[in-house]
Structures are given as C-alpha cells and as structure tokens.
Amino acid sequence: MPPPPSPSNTSASSRAVSLNGPPSADLPSSMSDLEMNAKAIQDRISGLMSARKTPSSPRPDSRVSTSDSLQLLDLQGQIERFQARLDAAEDENNRLRTRTDGAEREASSRIEALVAERDCHASRVSELETASRTAERSLAERDAQIEALQRAAEQAARDAEKVKLDGEARLRDAQSMLEDKEALVAQLKEAVDAREGEQSENAALLKAKNAEIAMLEARVQKVSGELEEERRELGGHVDELRKAGQETIALYEERLSAADAKRYELEDMVVSLEEQLRTQARPVSPSTVARQATSAVEIDNEMLRDQVQHLQKKIGTLEDTLEDMRTANEHEDAAVRERIKRYKEREEATRKELTEGRQEIERVRKGEEKARMRIEELEEAFRENTIALENAQAEVETLRNEIADLEGLAAAAASNSAGELAPRANAERAKLQEEVAALRQQLAKAQAAAPSAGAGAQALEEELHLLQEDRETLQESLKRTQAELADERAIVEELRVLANERTTELDTLRKKLNRDGSINGHELKAPVSPSSKHDMAAAREEITGLKHIVQELQKENAAHTQRSKVLESENKLLMSETEQLREDLKALEEDVEKSLVREEAMLTGEQPPSPSTPSLDDIQALQRSYKDLKSKYETEGEQLRKKLADVEMKSARQAHDIYREDELEREIERLKEKVSRSQKKSSKTDLPLPEESNGRPPSVASTMSSTIGQSDELVCEICERPGHDIFTCDLLKEDAAPPSAGLMSSSLRADSELICEDCEERGHTAANCPHSLDVF
C-alpha cells in the first residue's frame, strides 16, 4: 500500500502565490468535493466490511477444504476490488488537488499584475524626483547668470560715475595747468593723441560688451539644451540602476525558492522513508489501510483550510498596504506638482530680472554714447583754445621784441628829441598795455573754457584704478578657486569613507550568504549559485570603480592646488608691478608740476629755469614707459583671466561629475534598502509555523517573481563608451579576458575618434575646443 500523498506539493506550489492577489472563487467548491469524496470512501469501506462478514456461498460443512479455497478466492477478489476503489479515490483526490493548484495559479497571476502596477507607480515617482532635481540645478545656474549680469551692470554704473568724477577733477585741475604755454601745448597734443586712443579703446570695449551679451545668450541656449540632454541621460541611468536592483532581488528570490524546494524535498523524502519503514515492520490490514487513507484525506483537508485562511488574511493585509501606498503616491504627486509650479514661478521671475538687466545694460550703453559725444565736444573746444593760446603767445613775443626796440631807440635819441618822443612813447605804451590786457582776458577765457587740460595725468590715474580693480577681481577669483578646492577635498574624503562602507557591507553580505539554514535540527549548507558569485564580483568591480574615481579626483585636486599656487605667485608679481606703476605715476606727476612751476616762472620772469628740472623729452619717455608697462600688464591680466576661466570650467565640470556620482550613490542606496526590506520580508515569511499532530510543518510563504528586461544598448559610466557597462570596463581590470569581436571593433572605433578633455565631446581635441572660453 503506498503512503498517503504529502502536502509538500501543494505547499511548494503555493509559494508561487504572492500576497497581493484576491481569493479564488473555486476554493469552496473544491472543499465540498473533498468532503463528499471522503464520505463516499467511508461508505464504501463500511460496505466492504459488512460484505466480508457474510458467507460467500452455501456449501455443505463436509467439504471444508473446498469451501476454504473458495473463500480465499472470494477474499482475494474483494481485496482487488478494494484496491481498484482506492486507486479511483486517489485519482479523484489528485484531480481535486490540480483544481486547487489552478486556482492558486490564477491568484498568483493577479497578484503579479498588482505588483507590476506598483512598480510602475514607483518608477513614475522616481522620474518626477529626477525632473525636480534637474529643475533645481537649472534654476541655480540661471541665478548665477543673473548675478553675473547684475555685477556687470554695477561695474558699468561705477565706470560712469568714475568718468563723471574724472571730468570734475579735470575741470578743477585745468586752471592751474594752463599757465605753462610751450610745455602745455606739447602736453595737450599728447593728451589729444591719448584721448583718440581711449576713444578707440572705448569703441572696442563696446563691441566686446555686445559680443559678450550675444555670447551669454548663446550660452544660455546651449546650457538649456545640455540640461535637457543631461536629464535624459540621468533618466536612462536611473532605469539601468532600477533594473540592476530588480535583477538582484530576482536572484535572491530564486536562491530562496531553490533552498525551500530542496528542504521540502528532503522533508518529503524523510516522511516517505518513515512510511516505508512502518509498512515493512508490520503487515497492514485493509481496515488500517482504509483508516489511514481517511485520516490522510482529513489531514489534507485541514491543511488546505488553514492555508486558505492564512492566504485570505495575508491578502487582506496586502490590500490595506497597497491602498496606503496609493494614497502616499497621490500625496507625493501633489507635492511634486506644487514644487514644479514654484520652480516655474521662480523661472519667470528670473526671466523678468534678466530682461531688466538687459534694459539696464542698454541704458548704460546709451549713457556711454552720450559721454563719448560730450568728450568729443570738449576735445573740439580744447583744440580751439590751443590755437588761441598759440596766437596769443606769438603776439606776446612780438610785443616783447617791439618793447625792446623802443627802449633802445628811446635811449639813443634821448639827448636829441626827448620832447618829441615822449608823447609818442606814452601813446605806444598805452596801446601796448591795452593789448596786454586783451591778451590776459583771452588767457582767462581759455583757462575757463578748457576743462580737459590735465587729461594725460587723469587718464593715467584712471588706468591705474582699473588695474587695481582687475587685481581685486583676480584675488576674489583666486579665493573662490581655493574654496572650491577645499570643497573638492571634502568630497574626496566622503567618497573614500563611502568606499570603506561599501567594503564592510560586502563583507557582511558574504557572511550572510555563507550562513546555513536549519532543517529538523540538522545544518544543511546550500551550494553557492553562480548568480551569487556574479553579485559578489559585480560588487567588487563597483568598489574598484569607485576607488578609481576617487584616485582621479585626488589627482585633479592636486593639479588644482598647484595651479592655485601658480596663480598666487603671479598675483604677487602683478601687485609688485602695480606698486611700481604707482610710484612711476607719482614721479611723473611731480615732474609735471615742477615743469609747470618752471614755465610759470619763465613767463613771469621771476627766476631762470633750473637745469635739474626735467624737460618735455623726459616726460614723454616716462609716458612711453608707462604705456609699455600698461600693455604688458594688460596681456598678463588677459592670460590670467583665461587661466581662471579654464580652472573654473574644470572645477564646474568636476562638480557636475560629483553631483552625478552622488545621485547614482543615492539610487544604489535606495535599491539596497529595497533588497534589505525584501530580505526581511522573505526571512519573516520563511519562518516555520507550529507543527501539527503528524509532525510535518506546513509551509505558508510566498515569493514574488518579476521578469527583468535589459536595455538594447549599454553605456559605460566610467569611460562613457557604448558596448559595455561599468562591471566589464577595461579600465577597472587590466588583466581581464579580451572582449568579443563586436565589442572589440566598437571600442577600436571609439578610440580612433578624437575626444576633447574639456567638454568631453567627440570630433576635436582640447587645443581646438570651440567652448574653451565658456564657463559651465
């Protein structure tokens, strides 16, 4: 007699049922069928027992041996019929089990559909989070651009105020510097030349500002396109990380299901062996066989009832949790919509501020044009005054010569015609005095009408102020780069700590996988599956990739520190040159003042010119040396600005890479939390329930299985080349096996292309990069 069927098959099949599915409609009908079959089996057994007690045929008592043999034949026939009926009952029981299995499979399919819907909602929430982060970054970049435009507008306002102050200073200084005639004419000519050069410089500056505005607008458009591309790339990375997490969850569930199946097989084997030992130890009568069959059917029925009740309870709890998750998702969607609305309002405000900044720049440009026209008018008046001064100087010289001649004639003819020459001399002297008074009036008018007499010295002072402001801006940019370097050092330390944490997590995961599962008091070691080995290798490769990234960041940090030191030395050199220029300017002003005093003394005739006073040639030589130093300083300042722009661009790109790594790390942490939660749930559901009277523990657990799709094209996040992922990158494993022919050809094609190190685009190098002046 075979042993009764084990309930392990139904329990193993019930593991494919999830906890979210609805109850099956065929379960009550199957239970009623089982009860009817049990009653029918009991009736048949009772009928057989009653038929066994009745005699088979009325034979005489004299023929005992013949009647015994016939009775044995009848008994054998009855046993065979009983066996056939038992086989039929077992078939009926198997049919009922198949029906229950079908109902459970239907429930599992419905539960899987609900799980897929839940995963879809989770993916939607993650996409909204990524969109909000990209919007925040774009808003920060636009705020930075608006601040830069505001600083430019303030700088233009300061320049206009400085021009106004310079004009007032020129008006004050013109009266004291117009008394020198000959030297003043030469200095005014030099000032006119310098002013023409300044006009050309102002025109070039206006053109440069227009080009800068156009470049900023083009950069805004480019940055918006790059942000859109970055958002799409981040979405793809998030999908890849999500798929990787789902793969790990599926592998873990497969391992759990394999261990459970093996345990249940061993339990079934132990039960079957015990039943075989019992059947071999003592003969089994048909009545005991029938009782065992009925008891087995009753036990199966009870177990099925318990399982159905347990599944109904779990389904109810899971429906409650699903409803809670739906409400939470609705709240999160509302919050995300509100946040997006706020971001849109901020974007509109930034656009308005940008338009106001452009209007302010336009007003500043108009003010500069008006100032240029005013400067041209003053220069024209200055030219007219210089011509009038030259004419006055010539007339004064002629009058001096005539006075000298008249004095000589008066001294020679004093003895002869003193009476005749006296009235004539008095008339000529009065006439000359009138001419001198008229000339003095013209000189006073020229002094009042020449507001730009000291244009040369004032231009030098203005240029010196500009150089000082450039030096201050360079110092501020140097401080910013130093602060960014400190931030990068802190980020590198955080990445190092994170790598150490990952190694510890890997060790704990390895220990957890090496633990043994206990079955009936005995320790059974589950074999390590290839999927677990693959997970361990993938984790190691991920840690090596993070270490490689940390090393690259350390190298870039060292390069930035070296560059900051070079910039500090160059800044000190520029400061020393600025001090020297200031001293030269002071010396030049002193020489100009001395020359003015000397010329005044020569005109008044008080004292002769001292030989130690510098001449106009010395002043012109000093001005030329100053112009040379100025051009040198401007070239060095332009080089420093370019270097600072390169440093800021690289630091911004490095910060962008660090933000990207942080987002990937956060996504990995979320996936790990999901895996740990699923592990906790599976460990809770895999705990054995209290044993029944027959000693066999019922298994009521459920696992979730999900099909994971892989993307058609993989892109490595370390070298950013298509055809492989970060776990199979050649940069992480130098002694790895060679890739396939297709991947080899694609990598060779990618290496053959030119890649820029600054903007990371293909088709050109860093020396020919069109975005070398851009700051990201």
Automatic annotation (TrEMBL):
Transmembrane segments: none annotated. The keyword Coiled coil applies. It comes from the Eukaryota. Residues 1-70, 89-110, 673-707 are annotated as: Disordered. Keywords: Coiled coil. Residues 139-233, 301-512 form a coiled coil. The keyword Coiled coil applies. This is CCHC-type domain-containing protein. It comes from Ganoderma sinense ZZ0214-1. The lineage of its organism: Eukaryota, Fungi, Dikarya, Basidiomycota, Agaricomycotina.
